[in-house]
Amino acid sequence: MSQAILKLLEPHAVLLGANVADSTEIIRLLGTELYKAGYVKESFIDAAIDRESRLPTGLPLGGSFNAAIPHTDIEHVVKPGLALATLKNPVSFQNMAIPSETVQVSLVFLLALEQPKAQIEMLQEIAGVLQTPRVVSALMSAKQFNDVIDALKVEE
Amino acid sequence: MVGVKRILVACGTAIATSTVVARAIEEALKERGIDITTRQCKASEVKSLASDADLIVTTTPVPDNLGVPVIHTLAFLTGIGKEDAIEQIVEILSK
């Protein structure tokens, strides 16, 4: 059960089957939704894009789908929150561990964290989701917000 | 008696990723009865903090020649190779 994710996930910032050209576009779309919903300052969006270019967050998961977990410095955050996108077609992110490598990403969690080392439960749950191919697949086939909830309620 | 081993956990900004990694390492080693402390830092801080650590676990590139063993892995985020990474940590700390 992903209780902390469900608590912090902003429904308006869940974009399913998003059709975007690149990683910048999806970070901008999700960041804008978090901004409109009051989780982050407007500066968060450019800061998250900038950070992604310097310290990338692409994560190869070894299965059909790969993920990225963009985030940025706490000064741009108003309150903790989470945005989620599944992409119609994967876009390139750079690999967190080996930034020269490209990862084709279909699942994006944009994290708004207001202090370091906080929201540990949410972060652990996201790692749990990424480590559970069944849940990743269920998220990827979600058509509406309720499907996301159902996918995240599955026991890991 | 051997002192508690210190693991420096590095990531890009020391906000999210290293939090997950540090907690995962703590839990995995606790299960094996190994006492450790973790400290989180940014990759850019590794060089200045390395000398206080017995081992560095990082998700992002860090400089070479830190004088401390380095494990560079995403295993604690993605689960891929996690058991191997834990074994590697145990082996290094038992030296």
The count of helical stretches of chain A stands at 6
CATH architecture label of chain A: 3-Layer(aba) Sandwich
Strand count, sense and closure of the main sheet of chain A?
A: 5 strands, mixed
The portion of residues assigned to helices of chain A is 25-40%
What is the CATH homology-level superfamily of chain A? Mannitol-specific EII, Chain A
Total domain modules of chain B: 1
Oligomer: heterodimer
What is the CATH homology-level superfamily of chain B? Answer: Response regulator
- Count of individual helical segments of chain B: 4
What key phrases describe this protein's structure?
heterodimer; A: alpha/beta; 5-stranded mixed sheet; 38% helix; B: 95 residues; alpha/beta; 4-stranded parallel sheet; 4 helices
Can you offer a commentary on this structure?
The complex is a heterodimer of chains A (156) and B (95). In chain A, a hairpin with a 7-residue loop joins strand 4 (81-94) and strand 5 (102-112). Chain A has one domain (3-153): Mannitol-specific EII, Chain A, CATH 3.40.930.10. The model of chain A has no long low-confidence stretch (mean pLDDT 95). The radius of gyration of chain A is 14 Å and the shape is globular. With 156 residues, chain A is α/β, with parallel strands linked by helices. A five-stranded mixed beta sheet of chain A has the order 1-4-5-3-2. The termini of chain A are close together. Chain A has helices spanning 3-8, 23-36, 43-54, 120-130, 133-140, 145-153; strands spanning 9-18, 58-59, 66-68, 81-94, 102-112. Chain A contains six helices and five strands; from the N terminus they run αβααββββααα. By secondary structure, chain B is of the alpha/beta class. Chain B has a single domain (5-93), classed as Response regulator (Rossmann fold, 3-Layer(aba) Sandwich). Helix content of chain B is 37%, strand content 22%. Chain B has helices spanning 17-31, 46-49, 75-78, 82-93; strands at 5-11, 36-42, 55-58, 70-72. Chain B has a four-stranded parallel beta sheet with strand order 2-1-3-4, covered by helices on one side. The radius of gyration of chain B is 12 Å and the shape is globular. The A-B interface holds A 51, 54-55, 57, 59-62, 69, 71-74, 96-99, 111, 113, 116-120, 123-124, 126-127, 130-131 and B 12-17, 19-20, 23-24, 40, 43, 59-61, 72-74, 76-80.
